[in-house]
Write a structure and sequence with these properties.
Elements (H helix, E strand, L loop, with lengths): L1 E3 L1 H9 L6 E3 L3 H4 L8 E2 L5 H4 L8 E5 L4 H12 L3 E5 L2 H4 L8
Parallel strand pairs: 1-5, 2-3, 2-4, 4-5
Organism: Solibacillus kalamii
Protein name: Rhodanese
């Protein structure tokens, strides 16, 4: 499984790269802020919402600590998606937050 550090992600965000971030945390968790531009798809909803994803794009998957996002990455990779897990998740992320 491909992984990325939060520093690598912050550098890409600072460079205004066109990123596709999926946040698989629960509703109550995302209330505390999300990575700017991230799409919220709770882990339990991934199987029924894969139709919302484009398999020609790459995705960075994030959760609180990196375990749920690793599970999501494993599932999505099996479905043919190009996914990268964010090491340490939101607990390691100290960049800008967006509130929805």
């Amino acid at each position: 499984m491909k992984t990325m550090t939060t520093d690598e992600l912050i550098n890409l965000l600072d460079a205004n790269e066109d990123l596709n971030v999926i946040d698989v945390r629960e509703d109550f968790e995302v209330e505390h802020g999300m990575i700017p531009g991230a799409v919220h798809i709770p882990l339990g909803s991934i199987p029924e919402r894969t139709n919302e994803l484009d398999n020609s794009k790459s995705y960075i998957v994030v959760c609180k600590g990196g375990v749920r996002s690793a599970n999501a990455c494993e599932y999505l990779a099996e479905q043919g998606f190009d996914v990268t897990n964010l090491d340490g998740g939101m607990m390691a992320y100290d960049g800008e937050l967006e509130f929805k």
